[in-house]
Amino acid sequence: MTDVRNDDFTLIRSIDDVIPLYRGNGQSEPEQYIGFETEIFVYRKDTRGQPVAASSRDCAQIVEHLKSRGLEPQLEMASAVEYASPAYPVTQVAKLNAEIAQAWQDYTQGIHDAGFQTNDAALAPFVTLDSAKDNLVDRDRARGLVKGMDLFKAPEFLKVTLLCTSTQVSLSYASPDDLRDTLATGYALTGAIFGVFANYPAFIEGKDERLQTNPRATFYDAFGKDGGIPDSLLQSADGEDFIRRHAEQVFKTDMLFYYDEKQNLVWPEKPVKFEQLEKIGLNTRSNYDLAETFVYTDFKVCNIRGSDGVPIGKRVEVRGFDAGETGALAAVPFCHALLRDAVGRDAVQGLLADYGLLPDQDGWQDRLKAARHSAAHHDGKFLDVPFGTRPDGSDGNLKDFARDLGGILKAYALRNPELAGALAPVIAICDTGKPQAQIKSEQTRDYTHAVAQLVTANDDARPTAKPAASARQAFKN
Predict the structure, then answer these.
(1) pTM higher than the cut 0.90
(2) DSSP 367-413
C-alpha cells in the first residue's frame, strides 16, 4: 500500500496539463523495466487452536521483526504485509525472479519465526468485514479509504480493500502507443489471468455457502466504470486518444477524500470529482494523483516513483493475480513472456486473434467484457466457460485457450530455462484446466472444513520455493 504524496501543490487546470505525464520513457524495448509486489495475509492460532487474523499491533511487530532481518516490508490495509521488489530491466527478468523467490522464503520464514502463519490464498475463509475493520492499520490512506467507502460505496469496495490480497506486476512503457498496445493485449488476457491464477478458498466471509464465482473479480463489478475493463481503452483509437480518455476519467472519478492546503485529509459530505476541486483551489497534482488511485481497473495506470518517492512517470500495473506462492513466483515471468518478450507477445496476440479479442477485430470490445464476465461468474465451472469467438463463429472456451496459452509459456520456458521452474505450476494448470481454487473447492466439504484446513496448513510447513535447479527438473518431468 503506497500512500500518495500530499505535498505537490502544482495546479492542474485542464487535461492538457497532465497529458505529458503519460508520454512514456521513450526508451527501447530492452530498456523497459518490470517490478513486482505481493501481499501476504497473516494470522495466528488462538488458545482454542482457531485462526485469528493478525491485529494492527501484530502487523507492526512483524514488520519490525522482518526489518531486523534486513528486509523492507510494508504494512497493508489489514492483517497483511507487503513485499515490493526493485524495478529491473526487462532483460534481467531471471535476476528479478530469483530475488522474488528469495524474498518469498525470507518473508514467510520470518513471519513463521515470529509466531504467525501465512495464508497461501487471496482470502481467508473466516475473515469478515467487521473483523477486518478491527485490524485496520493506522495510515492516512487506510483510514481515508475505509471511512469513505463505508459512507459512500457498496460493500464490495471494502471487501476488495480489506478481505483480499493479491500480487501485482508493474511494467514501464515507451510511448502512448506502447501503453495502449500493452493494455489491449493485457486486458484481452484478463479472463485468463483471473482464471488460471485463481487461488481462493471454497468458503469466505464466515459463511457456509460454497463460492461459485471468482470473488476478487466479481467484487470489482461493483466499481462500475472505475473497475474491470475501462471505456477509456475500449473506445480509444490510438495511444494519444487513450491517454486523453484516461485523464478525463480521472478528472471525473469520485474521490472519497482529498488533501487540503495543509496536507490534511478531508472527507466531503459526498464524493467529489477532481475537476470540482478547482472551485476551492485544491486542483493540485497531489489530488490528481490521489484521484487516479480511485480508478480500480484490472490494469491500472499509475505513478512510477524515484528513490525519493517523487513521481517521475507512469507505469502499467497488472492486478489480476491472486496472492499465494504460485502467483508470487510466476507473475513476473508470465507478464514478461506475454507482454514484453517479442516472440511470446507475437504468439499470444496470434492466439487472441483466433478468439476475436484484439482491437482490429469488429466487436472485440463486447467479447472482451463477456470473456471477463465468464471468468468472474464461472458458476463453479472455473475454466470451463465461454471465452471469445472462434474463426468459424462458434464460442471459444477458456479451458481450450488456457491449454494453448500453456504451449506459449512452454516455448518461452525453453528459451528462458532459468524461469522454467517458476512457470511450471502455471503450465500445469493450463494443461490440466484446473486452477488452485478448483482443487481447493473439490477437496473442501464445508466452511468448518475450510477453517480446519487453514488451522493445519502451516503446522509443519516451511517456505516451499524451490531452488532453480530442482524447479527446472520438475518442469522437465
Answers:
(1) yes
(2) HHHHHHHHHHS-TT-TTSSEEEE-TTSPEEEHHHHHHHHHHHHHHHH
